[in-house]
Design goal:
single chain; alpha/beta; Collagenase (Catalytic Domain); 4 strands; about 45% helix
């Protein structure tokens, strides 16, 4: 998967590397994302921009941690042949101040929390949705946990850890 990454309003860091590592790990667990034709855009932005996107596209007048905007239906994604022109999977946007606050509350590095949110967003782009049913939520959390473990990162859904919910996905 080819990522187009734009960083605006985040501190200096290896955000391209974080995004590419999260995408690679996610594609190893979610086979539908393991297609070199796929492209996705990742926006690391200030909360003010995320707030505007959330208000415009979701009707929620507040900042949030992550937004995802899929451009392919799950059936189209799964059946996408390996050969052909690039295909836009969708867009993901992360809000800096919200992500930083949540990382601080959890006592984890911002990069680790951003990786989790990117994985969460990528799974949404792949057609997974934790809001459709409790069973779907459990399944999506299990995928996230498996992907994070493959990256050497802790389970954000561990009962013993204080983990704010991933709230801003579409």
């Amino acid at each position: 998967m080819q990522l187009y990454i734009d960083v605006e309003g985040w501190p200096e860091g290896e955000w391209d590397a974080v995004a590419n590592r999260a995408a690679s790990a996610t594609a190893k667990v979610e086979p539908a994302l393991d297609n070199s034709r796929l492209t996705a855009s990742i926006l690391f932005a200030a909360d003010i921009e995320i707030h505007a996107l959330n208000r415009e596209w979701r009707g929620k007048d507040q900042a949030t941690n992550v937004l995802s905007f899929p451009m392919l239906e799950r059936n189209s994604l799964v059946s996408l042949p390996a050969d052909g022109p690039p295909e836009m999977l969708g867009d993901i946007a992360l809000g800096y101040e919200t992500c930083q606050r949540e990382a601080d509350e959890k006592g984890i590095p911002l990069a680790d929390h951003a990786a989790h949110l990117l994985i969460h967003g990528l799974l949404h782009l792949a057609g997974h949705d934790h809001e459709t049913s409790p069973a779907d939520a459990v399944a999506m959390e299990a995928l996230e946990t498996k992907i994070l473990a493959s990256m050497g990162l802790a389970d954000p859904y561990d009962e013993n850890a204080a983990d704010p919910p991933v709230t801003g996905v579409q």
